[in-house]
Amino acid sequence: MEEQVVLISENDEVLGLMEKMQAHVNGVLHRAFSVFLFNSKGEMLLQKRADHKYHSPGQWTNAVCSHPRINETYEEGARRRMMEELGIEADIHPKFHFIYKAEVGNDLWEHELDHVFTGFYEGDFRLNEEEVSEVRYISMEELDAELSAKPDHFTEWFKIILDEYKHHL
């Protein structure tokens, strides 16, 4: 079964469903969530996308980012994907939401109403190698330096969401 995304209006009213790849080709607005996880040192967890992903392969991004299913809340989707991608459960809380649109390469677009969650996690991971090749924690100072030096090592949406996150601190 092809994965579908929930198409919405700017007011988050459901307009229908569309196959995920087609939504990214057409650049239509759909629901999404992002999770930022931190450890006790205040370092942010990053995941490196698997090398065979159809867009942004091998790039670093936040702990989890994906799409809720129809009849699934943003938080339920975030918790599901933490388990599916990282093999973890973590206490997360809503931080903010916003709409953005970004070209992600190969004539594909992310146009999302993104609900951003933050949380804390220290423990072991059971990485799903179909999704994630590795994870690491990084200080915000080191992250800023790495983003400046090697911006192409990071997903386009992560750069946008991180900038928005910093405005909500």
Structure description:
This protein is α+β, with helices and mostly antiparallel strands and 169 residues long. It has one domain: Alpha-Beta Complex (Nucleoside Triphosphate Pyrophosphohydrolase), CATH 3.90.79.10. 25% of the residues lie in helices and 40% in strands. The chain has helices at 20-26, 74-86, 140-149, 156-167, and strands spanning 4-8, 14-19, 30-38, 44-49, 60-62, 64-66, 91-105, 108-120, 132-138. The strands form three sheets. The protein has a four-stranded mixed sheet with strand order 6-3-8-7, with helices on both faces. A three-stranded antiparallel sheet has the order 5-4-9. It has a two-stranded antiparallel ribbon with strand order 1-2. The mean pLDDT is 96.
List keywords for this structure.
169 residues; alpha+beta; Nucleoside Triphosphate Pyrophosphohydrolase; 4-stranded mixed sheet; 4 helices; 9 strands; 25% helix; globular
Question: What gross morphology would you assign?
Answer: globular
**Can you tell me the residue ranges where pLDDT is under 50 for at least 5 consecutive residues?**
none
Report the structural category: alpha+beta
Number of strands: 9
Name the strands of the widest sheet in spatial order.
6-3-8-7
The termini sit apart by 39 Å
| Overall domain count | 1
Estimated helix fraction: 10-25%
What is the average of the pLDDT values? 96
Secondary structure tally, helices: 4
- Radius of gyration computed on alpha carbons: 15 Å
Strand content: 35-45%
Tell me about the biggest sheet? Answer: 4 strands, mixed
Q: Helix and strand succession?
A: EEHEEEEHEEEHH
Q: Please identify the top-level CATH class.
A: Alpha Beta
| Second rung of CATH, namely the architecture | Alpha-Beta Complex
CATH topology: Nucleoside Triphosphate Pyrophosphohydrolase
What do we call the CATH homologous superfamily? Nucleoside Triphosphate Pyrophosphohydrolase
